[in-house]
Amino acid sequence: MASLHGGGPLRLGGSLELSMAGAEANVAIGLARLGHTARWAGVVGDDELGLLVLRTLRAEGVDVDTARTDPDHPTGLLVQERRVATITRVHYYRAGSAGSRLTSDDATAALAGGARMLHVTGITPALGPDAASAIAHAVRQARELGTRVCLDVNHRSRLWDRGTASRALAGLLPYVDVLVASADELPLVTGGAGPAGDGDVPALPAAGTGADEDVPALFAGGTGADGDVPGLLAGGTGADEDVPGLLAGGTGADEDVPGLLAGGTGVDRDVAALFAAGISEVVVKRGAAGAEAWTADGGHATSGAVPVRAVNTVGAGDAFVAGYLSGLLDGLPLGERLLRGVTVGAFAVASDGDWHGLPNRAELSLLALDEGETVR
Ligand code: ADP
């Protein structure tokens, strides 16, 4: 989608900077900057903003060969308002946008060239039934093709409530290999109680189940084409019959919430539940506290954030995912891919724009320099 960035309260008017935005596009750009092949699979309107989106992605080296232009719906728009120096508000104008019209055919086309990874987010499935179906189709097809699937939960409470999101994402989980979430998003996918008011979040399906045939998913974002292309989608369903009862009641975001499962802390229990559901890698983003990751074969790593002066935290999560997936595609050990994730995340935080300041490979070590240093 296109984006406008304002430097002060929007109601005062003034200058806005026109650019493009979107979680999956941010990840695709982050990967392309790091030298990976990346394809974005999405839909834009037949308008100037659509041309802007495609032109920007092309300029960043992202493959948009299968991206589609929809003559009947406009390109979505978001407006970022820097309300005060450190607080940004995001306003969406994307109801009925072209992006919400993503279809299963778009997903098929995007994956056709073969890809090592498909990356999807929980945002696209929230955009509407077409996009949801497309994402569900994409993750299933990825599984058939031997393409690994990464899902970033990326819950957007303005798009759907936690119960609806949880039911939708549950349909995707059987096809997910790498799950990325904030700690407070984990209960959304494990069926934990989560924050107050979360009443109807369904519990996690057991491994090998939940592959309902009629999963209404929502697709979002791109996909990868050749070799190491990571893609992007999301969607799902829920209402699985065979939800393991022990997980009901689950956990909260905080570490020490006692759940129904014996032993373990909240996050540990959520991670164990995800492994039981067949996911092989769980990555938790913790903002300025860094990140933590577990693999189903017993691997575990934590990393503090790279200390930077925060300029704009929008896009940090996507940048982190780009770094983490880059490490995965490079075959780095768990701790090193986590380190690449927090490094690229820090670049996003320390720069203006959601993706503009992301590093290329040679710049990854730049943040180790002293603040204010000039590189000659
Ligand atoms: P999201 O943007 O999805 O909410 P986070 O806020 O957790 O995700 O940020 C993602 C990653 O970006 C973090 O795991 C961390 O590595 C990095 N990051 C976020 N905020 C900061 C910060 N203030 N300073 C340095 N790194 C940060």
TrEMBL record:
Pfam families: PfkB. The keyword Cytoplasm does not apply. PROSITE patterns: PFKB_KINASES_2 (PS00584). InterPro entries: Carb_kinase_PfkB-like, Carboh/pur_kinase_PfkB_CS, PfkB_dom, Ribokinase-like. The keyword Oxidoreductase does not apply. Keywords: Kinase, Transferase. This is Sugar kinase. It comes from Nonomuraea rhodomycinica.
